[in-house]
Amino acid sequence: MPGSKLDHGNVQGGKQWGRLKEEQNVRLTEINEQVVANGDYKEYDPEELEEKLVAFKDQFMEYDLDNSDDLDVTDVSKMMEKLGKPKNIIEVRKIIAEVDTNNSGTIGYNEFLQMMLGKKSSVLKLILMFEEKGKGCAKPDGIAPKRSLEEMLNKPNI
Q1: Is 33 part of a structural domain of the chain?
Q2: Are 104 and 2 in contact (CB under 8 A)?
């Protein structure tokens, strides 16, 4: 299983972490460009595919907590917790096994893309798709506007 490239003994590792994330961003962007150039997913419009790839790259980087370019058991467990769907280790390993095509015990970026763009359905794909749909609903910010009692009584509930 790949390990973190981060020196955990360095207490001032913010700059190092930022550099590692930027390097990962470059690597994953190159993979995205290869996917578009290869025409692997012809069922998608090229512009739509590029938008999806950028979103998937950002999502993958968000959940790759150790910057290893793989989502391991820890990463997927934290992902499930963050999405409000906590799973035990056995369930997480089953989720990874559904997606892991090279039997590494982790989900690499190419496997992640195959899962998200391919026709095969998996538990992780469904959870991530519903998470994206939930983000689409904008919640109001700030203080509610002042209204009179008459306005509130006459306005139907929405």
Answers
A1: yes
A2: no
